[in-house]
Structures are given as C-alpha cells and as structure tokens.
Amino acid sequence: MPSLNLQILVAACLGVLIGWLTGTLPAESGLREGVLYASNLLGGIFVGLLKMVLVPLVFTSIAVGVANLQAHHQVHRVWLTTLVYFTATTCLAMVVALVAANIFEPGAGLSLDLFADAMASFEARQLTMPEFFQHFFANLFQNPFAAFADGSILAIVVFALFIGIALVAGGERYRNILVLLQELLELLLRIIGWIMRLAPLGILALLVRLVAEQDVALLGAVGGFIVLIFATTLFHGIVVLPGILFLATGRSPLWFWRGAREALITAFATSSSSATLAVSMRCAEENLQVRRGIAGFVLPLGATMNMDGTALYEAAAALFVANLVGIELSFAQQMVVFFTAMIASTGAPGIPSAGMVTMVMVLQAVGLPAEAVAILLPIDRLLDTVRTAVNVQGDITGSLVVQKFADGDPRD
C-alpha cells in the first residue's frame, strides 16, 4: 500500500484536476452541483475532525511542553529563541513584500469600478490601533472554560502557559497532574493518527471545491497582484526559510520538505494553520526528530503568533490598495504598514481568511479606505492556500531552529 505522503500527493493532484473539470460545467448542471455537494460534505468532515482535537491538543501540548523543558534547564533559552525567531522571520517576510511591491507596483492602472458590487455588499469593520490593542489583549485573558467552549486559541495558549509554569514551579508536588496531561496528549495523538487515514480523501474534496468555485474573470483582473503574492510568498518559503534552516542547523531543504510534506499539503488544502497543527506536530516529531517538548511548545504558539505568509500578504496588499486608489505611500507610511502588519498577523487566528479582519486595521493605519478590502475578498481564498503553507513551514522550521539552539543538535 502506498505511503500516506504519496496518497496525499496523488489526492491533491486529482483534486485540482477534478475541480478544474467541474468548473468547466454549466452552473445549472446537476453533475456540478453533485460534485460540489459531495466535496463540501467530505471536506467539512475532515476539517471538522481536525478541529475536534485542536483545543485539547493545544492545551496539553503547550502545558506538557513547558513542564518538560524544566528537566533540561531550557525554559529561558527556548522562550528567547522562539520569540527571536518568530520576530525575525516575520520581519524578513514583510521586507520581501514591501521591496517587491515597490518595484512591481501591483494594481497600478486598475479600476475600482470592477469591484463595485463586491464593495457594496461588504461591510467593513473599522478598527483603530487602540481598538485593536484593546481587542487583542482582552482576548488573551479569559475564563478558561469559556475559552475552551468558544475555541479561543490565544486565550487557551496563555492559560496553558500558566499551567505549564505552575507545574514547573510545583515540581514533584504536581507530578501526578503532569503524568495525566502527558497521557492525555498521547491519547490525542493516537486519535490524530486515525483521523489522518482520511487525509487523502479530505484533501481531494477540499481542492475540488477550491478550484471549481474560482471566478476566472475576476482573477484575471487582478492577475498581477496574484502573481506577486505567489512569487514573494514562494520566495520566502523556498529561499528565506530554508536558508535560515541551513545556517542554523546545517540541514538541507530537501530533507525538510520530505519530512514536512504531509503538513505543507494539508495546510495548502485547508488554509488553516490551526487545523493543520496536529499534522505539523506529527511531521516534526516523527519525520524530523523534533523532541515532543520542543514541538509541543513552538508549534502551537507558532500557529497563533508566527504568521510569515499572512504578514507578507497584508503588507503587499496595503501597497496594492494604495496603487488602486492613486495614493503613493511615503517611507514613513510604509514603516507604519510594516509594524501594523506585524501586530495584525500576530493576532490573526489560524483559520481560513482570518487575515481579512486584521487587514482593515492595516489599511486604516495609513489612511486607506477600509472598504477597499472587498477587492481582496474574491481572491483571498486562493492566496490563503500558499501563505498558510508558508505559515506552517515557518512554524516547523522554527521548532528545528529552537531545538538546535537549546540542545546543540536538532536530532537529539
């Protein structure tokens, strides 16, 4: 029987092919409706199963990860290395975006009239910088039971960090609680193994829907921007992140891509770093030999805080909108975009098209019309695929880099 990686790769290719063929059928075709219904149903079941284990996985993996770091006296080093890595890669992603957007000037010459209908039906949420900070920090500290019920991942991460630190401070006194959490984590990983048997079918269904429902005429109108985002995002994923990995660990990009392929394809298909988290942890631990304590700390934190692809996209999109409305952003204004996009990408949840909410804040930070975000809505789902894959790649790369600096060898 073919390996799971091969099954997922074949399923992804079939999904694109079937989606393209389905998209060529008339809108009223019964066959088209049947294929889309089946793909929606199967894709929804697969994503639902991944989200089912997301909340308990995030909580147990971070709590156990923080507690287990104590045994190696690594807590401070891992914290510092993780935050430095997250900040550095996000900054590099936005530098790539801003340089490319200034050189190629995407959107120059296009007309906003093309998107009048989309803008008329879109209700933008106005978020000033103070409002965003208030909203962001209010979401950090919540009733943990409410956070679990609502799936507020960032609040769950903060609560898990407190639990992990308390387990470290309590030492042997809380040993039984730590053992219980470790066993719960192992139980969840077993369930995830079962879910992943459905991954080829789920990814096939998701890609059929994605490819079949794209508006080709609208995509053609903003083709230059799409090409720019794909090119810069791929540059970050193929050159920048592998370069960091090689410089820090000496590992080759091919070794990494073979080990992380399953997670990257899942991220591409689901457009959700949170839904891909279970697969990312499996790839990091089983294929790339990242210790569970490191993977359990870096990856869940990265799924909510380390969004290289999202930051790159939001920075480039701000300049794209500025070109559309005939505004030339100064260097100082572009620096505002830089820092605002960093904050916005950190606060964006790891779900499909989450960046659309924080994109409004980035636009308004430099006086651009928030309503212009509607221009991005028709193409966002397509662009979300590649940037999510790069988000996940950055998280997995980070786990290897952090382990290297914590232990001296990513294979330990």
Describe this structure in words.
The protein has 412 residues and is mainly α. It is built from 19 helices and no strands. It has helices at 4-23, 30-52, 54-69, 75-104, 116-121, 129-138, 144-150, 153-170, 175-195, 199-212, 216-221, 223-249, 253-270, 277-287, 292-305, 308-324, 331-347, 355-365, 377-407. α13 packs antiparallel against α14 (277-287) and α13 runs antiparallel to α19 (377-407). The longest helix is centred in the last third of the chain and has 31 residues, at 377-407. It is globular. Residues 114-126 have low confidence and may be disordered.
Structural class: mainly alpha
Roughly how much helix do the residues carry, as a percent range?
over 70%
The biggest beta sheet is recorded as: none
Question: How many strands appear in the DSSP assignment?
Answer: 0
Please write the string of helix (H) and strand (E) elements. Answer: HHHHHHHHHHHHHHHHHHH
Q: For the residues shown, what is the average pLDDT?
A: 80
- Large-scale geometry: globular
| Low-pLDDT stretches | 114-126
